[in-house]
Each structure stands twice: as structure tokens, then as C-alpha cells.
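Rotation project, supervised by the postdoc (A.L.). Task for the rotation student: set up a whole-complex structure prediction and record inputs and outputs verbatim in this book. Inputs entered:
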Amino acid sequence: MATNAPSRVKKLINDVANVVPESLAGLGRAHPDLVKIDSANLVVLRAGGPRPGKVSLVSGGGSGHEPLHGGFVGLGMLDAACAGHVFTSPVPDQMEAATRAVDGGAGVLHIVKNYTGDVLNFQLAAELVAGDVEVATVVTNDDVAVQDSLYTAGRRGVGGTVLVEKIAGAHAEAGGSLAAVAATAVKVNANVRSMGMALTSCVVPAAGTPTFDLPDDEIEIGIGIHGEPGRRREKIAPVDDIARMLVDPIVSDLGLERGERVLAFVNGMGGTPLIELYVAFNSVAKLLDQRGIEIGRSLVGNYITSLEMAGFSVSLLRLDDSLAELWDAPVHTPALRWGV
Amino acid sequence: MFDALESWLRLSAARIHEQAPALTALDQAIGDGDHGINMDRGFAAILVQLDAGAPEVEGDVARAGTMLRTAGRTLISTVGGAAGPLYGTAFVRAGSTLVAAESSTADGELVLAALEAAIAGIAGLGKATAGEKTMLDALVPALTSGREALGAGSTVAEITRVIAEAAEAGAIATIPLLATKGRASYLGERSVGHQDPGATSSALLLRSLADAVAAA
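Outputs recorded:
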């Protein structure tokens, strides 16, 4: 089958069916010192096998959000990441294989983004290893664009997931127990809120055409990470104005007060250049200045993406000294590295 | 029972394959646009499992139940998304009900008991009830109608026909509903006016059951 037929958006692929395995193979070839690929199960494992006595972290989800999750496997972050088809949850067999492979006897924390498919598959996986491996599960749900009510599946897990993986990973590396590491993950999730926006759609490789139509002069506010719709559509505006549409709901939902300190995370959706992401970060910083909120730590870049979607998301994490210390702890993964 | 249910699984696989683009199109409107693709992958794997031969289990009904349990595990292992665990659990529970059934039970009662167990599995795992624009909106009215038919003394062929009709009506009746579970719930009011893909695939499975039983 011609995968680059004229009607399809051009992509760097060989065969649509092999995008995920070939991408994982490339990750493994690029970073053999950090990760090992279980190609039968489509799982990215930390190189060197399980660490005896260390709590292990396993995450996973649909592909298309790279570097999440496979790019965050390594020292001070994840021990394994399960890759599903693009935008489709992996299956319990993958999570079971990952969980058994990384267990060092101290238990395994599953970090799950709040989407029905991911939650159900991880739940079945935990049942499959029950009795053999102690598993705790933390579900991330930081997206303020979705109303958390009886009438939705609950808020989606988005940018805050990256911060949960980094900070809980640092706590596990420092020797925290499963209960303590899980509590840290819950604490991060409880203190982080995110909201995103899109300038353009994304193109799922198997579909070959844009997931949604967005007129040239419109943007989608509150976009998810699968091209699913957000709160509303607006006319394109200066990024100062767009940043306010994201920061205001976050600050209000998190109840951030003057004098508080945050980690400010401006995340690219995959198709926006860094020059624009830094313009956006500057806008976010000015808004936080006006509200008397101090930026204690920051992260800017493409870390949880939606294929080639253009746009960005803002995540704000309320920081205390212990979270800041865990954030600063050494990390060495394909996508995030400092302190080593 | 075994032969009828094996024909059912094969017929379902053929129809899922044929209807995969339509199911995916429904899912593109209110979900993430992969329901047909994922279900087709799962049922193709079930066909491979069926071709490998019948399970070596004593008793026709128990053998049928074992086949359904294996099919359920296959769906869990291959479909992904929410549909994999939900349908997989439904088939495992239905199969377990048949495995545990008294050999003297009438076929119509067996079918309804298996359907009831499947519904309980989906409702428990998905924390859902009928009326939330999910597969339960096809399955729950199907069970209700099937029970009425059983009470009226219908044959298993009549019961499965009534079940299929109620499921199809239930799937169509999801169009005006507001989704409150799954990814469609993020759309809020915008989910109204679209037929639920999960209810549609459930109706397709139950129509296949009626046709397989009628042909048996």
C-alpha cells in the first residue's frame, strides 16, 4: 500500500502499521545506555534491569505524545513505559510484562492518565499481577478544560503527568517506599493544573488526514492531546491574550494566592517552534508577575505532544521545598536530563 | 450450543470487519475514531484462535463457555482502548456463566444468563448504567426484552431475535442521549445527535447471535 499517496499528509514513515515499533526501535538504538526495548510487548525498559529494593514506576498510554512516556524512562524517572497504537491505550498484557520486568521487590507504581481506556487496561493489568507484585496506581487528571463532574469521565491527564513522573521518579530513586512514592505522585497531581490550546489539528498516521478542521483564523481553547475538542473556539489573538485564556482558569482552579511559588511548564503540542514557546513563556511569566506568583522552577519544550499539532499548554505546579528538591534531583532519560 | 456460538463468533468477525469503517466513522464524531479498527483487530485474533481448534472440555455447554472465555481474553489482549477491557470482560463473564451452568438448563435461559453476566461485567468495570450513551444502552433493553420473551415461552431462536431487535432499537435510541461516560463525555452537549459506536457494535454482535442461532 502506498503510504504517501497524494491525498495523505506527508509523513516520515515506512509502513503505517509499523510506526510505533519502528519508533521504539529508533529510541532504543539512539539511547542504548539508557533504555532497552521489549519489542514483543512494545515496552521501553530502563537499561540494566530492575533495581533491587527500589520502587519501580510504570506508565504508558497511546503513542503520538512523544517523548511521553518512553522518552522519560531512565535514572530518576520511569522504569518502564508501555506504548499503545497511536492514541489508543496499550493492553493489559503489555502492562503486565512491564510490571513483572521492572519489579525489584519493593513494588511498582502505575502512573495512568485519566482516560477510560488507559484506566481500565491498567486496572486489569494490576489484577493480573495481584499476589506476585505489589502495585499502587495513581491516576493523573490535571486538565482544567474538562469540567470534573458526574457528567464526564473526569478531567484528562495532560501536562501534569510529566511532572508527576519526574518528581515521583526522584522520590523512588531516593529510596522512598511504594506508599510514600505514591503519596508524592498524588500530591503532585493534586497541586498541578493544566490547559492547552491548538493552532492546527494533528494527523493520525493510520487516518492520513487531519483529525479536525480548524479555520485559518481560529484556535481551539482547551484542546486535549488527541485532537479531541476543547472548551471553545476563538479568533486567533496575540499570545499575551491566549496565555491569559489558559492561565486564568488554572490559577483560579488551583486557588493560587499572591506570594505562592510555582513550577511553570510551557509545553509544545509538537508542531510549534521553540521561538514561539518562549514567547508564550514570557507571556505566562508576565501574567504570573501581575498576580504576585513567583516562578520557582520552569520547563519549556515539547514534552507531551499531540503528533504535529501546533499549539501549547500551560501547567502550573504549586511548589514547596520538598517538591522543588525532588524536581532538582538528577534525571537522565532520553528526553529529560540534568544533574548527571 | 458450542457449534451455534462458534458460528456466532465467526459471523460477528465477518460483520465487524465489514462494518469497521462505519463504526470508526461513528467514533470519529464523538470519540477518538478507532472503534472499528480496534474491534476488527480483536475479532481477527478470535478467528485465529477458533481456527486453532475447539477447547478440549467435557460437555457441549462448558466447551462453549470455555471458547467464550478464551475469546474474551483475546479481546482484552488485542483491542486496547476502553472497548478491549469492556467487551473482553463481557465475554469472559458470559463464558464463565456457561461453564458453571447446570447441564439441564434450557438454551434460552443460558443465553439470557450469559447476557446478564456480560452486562454485569461491563457495568462493574465501566462504572456505568443504561442511559449514559454506552454499549449498555443496547445490551440492557436486549436483556429486558429477552426475559419477557422467555417468560412468554419463546424458543431460543425467538428469544435471540427479540434480543437483536431490542439492541438495535437501543443503539438508535442513543442518538439524542448526552454522553456522561468515556471520551464522548468531554463533548458534553455536542455528543447529542450522534449514535454511540459501542451501542452500535453491541447491537451488531447480538444481531449476529440471532442469525447464527436461526441458521443452527
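Student's summary: The two ends of chain B are 9 Å apart (CA to CA).
Supervisor addendum: The CA atoms of residues 56 and 63 of chain B lie 7 Å apart.
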